[in-house]
Amino acid sequence: MTASQPAPSMHPTPPATERAVVLEARNMTRRFGGLVAVNDVSFDVREGEIFGLIGPNGAGKTTLFNLMTGLTPPSSGTLTYRGRTVTGLAPYRVAGLGLSRTFQNIRLFKGLSALENVKIAQHIRTRAGLWQGVFGSSRQEELQVERRAWALLDLVGLSDRAGELAANFSYGDQRRLEIARALATEPQVLLLDEPAAGMNTAEKGQLTGFIRQVRDQFDLTVLIIEHHVPLVMNLCDRVAVLNFGQLIAVGEPAHVQRDPKVIEAYLGGE
Ligand SMILES: Nc1ncnc2c1ncn2[C@@H]1O[C@H](COP(=O)(O)OP(=O)(O)OP(=O)(O)O)[C@@H](O)[C@H]1O
């Protein structure tokens, strides 16, 4: 994976605690029958942060992502994005506001090429855009979409396989293609659901640097669900820990790692 170096900033990045709050989750709860998959979860994510979400299997991490991106309506609670309530909006509206995601169970168009997957994502941002994408946009717009798709494939190291069907890609490559597709929607917040799953050791090793570079290059705020603990601890500015749907700790990785509740619930079991 390659990402060209961002231009050096004229202003030093302020510490996370002084940056603007981008996302405010307040008392988010989701019940499935008698099961409370996400239980009264509140946290803030600040501009430019890489924010990790960890917890044992079934802790509620993917459900929380689904609540945040409109896939699943919450039973109660709200998510505010730059002061605007997002909960209740359809997924394409949430994506249109600038929140884009990848999926734990990869959701590429497997019968389309890598290039087509990324091109379509650029049209998916709004319904109007999709309509235009399917039924015709100007030649110049199409060229722009094509150029951008190639650049994104290049970024994730897949431009030499642009014409291959997504179905033929390894899991690791499909995850990288999903990241390119998510970036094609021009997000401000990128939510990655287990991006290292299916990647080999070398790919996992590269992922930390790659996510940081993408964050810097596209001025993103990143939320990441990840089981690979060393990756989370190296990569994230802050980490939130879910256990049985409840948020049991939020803080810097080193701090969270020492929290007895976390050790008992999760890290102790590693
Ligand atoms: N649509 C659904 N209907 C019923 N139960 C659900 C549904 N989605 C999730 N659950 C349940 O909610 C709980 C949380 O699941 P979730 O997938 O969010 O956990 P997770 O932390 O992402 O787990 P993993 O690390 O294994 O991916 C689990 O007990 C799961 O079985």
In terms of topology, how is this protein built?
Layout: E1 21-32, E2 35-46, E3 50-54, H1 61-68, E4 76-81, E5 84-85, H2 91-97, E6 99-101, H3 114-124, H4 127-135, H5 139-155, H6 171-184, E7 189-193, H7 201-218, E8 221-225, H8 229-235, E9 238-243, E10 246-251, H9 253-258, H10 260-265
Parallel strand pairs: 3-8, 3-9, 6-7, 7-8
Antiparallel strand pairs: 1-2, 1-4, 4-5, 9-10
Bound molecules: adenosine-5'-triphosphate.
GO molecular function: ATP binding; ATP hydrolysis activity
Domain ABC transporter: 23-269
Protein name: Branched-chain amino acid transport system ATP-binding protein
CATH topology of the largest domain, what is it called? Rossmann fold
Number of strands: 10
Determine the CATH superfamily of the largest domain: P-loop containing nucleotide triphosphate hydrolases
Average pLDDT figure: 87
- Low-pLDDT parts are 3-9
The proportion of residues forming helix, as a percent range, comes to: 25-40%
Sheet with the most strands: spatial strand order: 6-7-8-3-9-10
Overall morphology: globular
* CATH class categorisation of the largest domain: Alpha Beta
Instruction: Tell me the structural class.
Output: alpha/beta
- Topology as H/E string? EEEHEEHEHHHHEHEHEEHH
**Rg result:** 18 Å
